Amino acid sequence: MLNWLIGPLKKRVIYEIRQILYDHPKFRDSHENVVNKYSFEERPQRGVIINNATADRIRLSADNYVGRLMSFCMLSNVDNKPGTSLEWVRENDLLLQELSFKRDVFPSPPGAYYLEITKIPDDARNIPGEFVIDSFLTVTEEPLIRFTTTNDIDAQLSHDNILPNSVRLWIERRRSLIQGVDFTVNNATGEIVFLKETPVGASIYADYRYIIPRRGPFEFKTEETNVTAIPGVVLAFGDRSQLCDRQAVVVTDVRTHTAEIYGGKFETTFSLIAFSKDADDRERLSDYIILKILERQNVLGFEGIELLDVSPGGEDEEVYNEATDEYFYDSSISLSYRVDWESYIPLPIVLQRAEFTSKSTEIGSGYLDGKYVTDLLVNSTPTNLIGVPPVLRRNFGYERVV
């Protein structure tokens, strides 16, 4: 998870050792006895305890900058919600590989998928939480109409149930018309009505979002992932989910730069305590674990978990129950790993458009009549750009949800 370094690696080590014991017919019935520290209510016949983790960071460069992430999807916070339930989102590589050898086909249409937590997981009783998804799908550069006369007063979007204030109409893909000045929209039907005389021969293209019915509820558990709610997206839930929390997953039709990546490596060491009531059984258990960990090091290496050292430690015995005088025999195993860490910093909002014309003139005159047609970068330099700062909010910016 996002806020853990040692925790996920320790869970991965526990999982591997459980699999190692399960593969041995004699130790199979003890594979669930591999735990984090002493969490047994009553000590079983044999088991393994993961203990004493230490870690040291390895600095790779001055700032540990790795590069930029390009992805079909990104996570964004919404309004003033906490935004803590989802730790991160990623592309589902396995699914994308099934759809296309180049992994350039994404199964979910572009848009903003708003995830809302409706039920918190009850970890103590193993009851999952629930979330729902409200989808606002994006349409870009839809050919709307080519004016044949000055009296072409209406047009029809290809979808209905339009998200209010999301429609942007463009003359020849360059100049954005002003809603309420140049045109009106019937959000329920998708009908467009032009309010001014239309320029003959000009083509209009539409960008907008439309709403599809809410989906869910979907179940989720703490520190687990969901790959079905939004096909192609891996939703990773942490341990900080909150009721009514809301976050957005933005999906684009092509891969875009979504974050700056910082990363590196750190080395960590675990002390494993293998215990058994029988001294010979303890030795066989310890030797078997060491051998199998060495055999599995290549498998973990593909996940960025590099085995540096595995070695047996000392042996001892301790009194478990003084009333019955039962003895347990312990042996320690030291495991050292070098693992990758990464941090993703979302990129800033991308500027969609800026204008020379003042806001009051824009609202009063609009652009349908072609009177204000000066583009931003014509006869100008970055040092003398003037005009109204762009308004960046959820219903305006398609590139980011803020």
* Total of helices: 5
Q: Helix-strand pattern, N to C?
A: HEEEEHEEEEEEEEEEEHHEEH
Q: What structural class should be given to the helix and strand makeup?
A: mainly beta
Cα-atom Rg, whole angstroms? Answer: 29 Å
The span between the termini is 23 Å
Described by strand count, sense and barrel closure, the largest sheet is:
11 strands, mixed
Average pLDDT score: 79
**Number of E-type strands:** 17
Which residue ranges are poorly predicted, with pLDDT under 50 across at least 5 consecutive positions? 373-402
Mass-distribution shape: elongated
| Percentage of residues in DSSP E strands | 35-45%
Instruction: Report the oligomer.
Output: single chain
Q: What fraction, in percent, of the residue positions are helical?
A: 10-25%
What would you say about this model in short?
This protein is mainly beta and 402 residues long. The chain is 13% helix and 43% strand. It contains five helices and 17 strands.
What would you say this structure looks like, in words?
This protein has 402 residues and is mainly β. It has helices at 6-22, 93-99, 279-295, 297-301, 359-365, and strands spanning 34-36, 46-58, 65-77, 86-91, 111-119, 129-146, 154-156, 168-171, 175-176, 183-186, 191-194, 203-220, 225-226, 233-237, 246-276, 305-321, 326-346. Strands 1, 2, 3, 5, 6, 8, 9, 12, 15, 16 and 17 form an 11-stranded mixed sheet that branches. Strands 4-14-13 form a 3-stranded antiparallel sheet, with no helix packed on it. It has a domain at 1-128 and 221-347. The two termini are 23 Å apart.
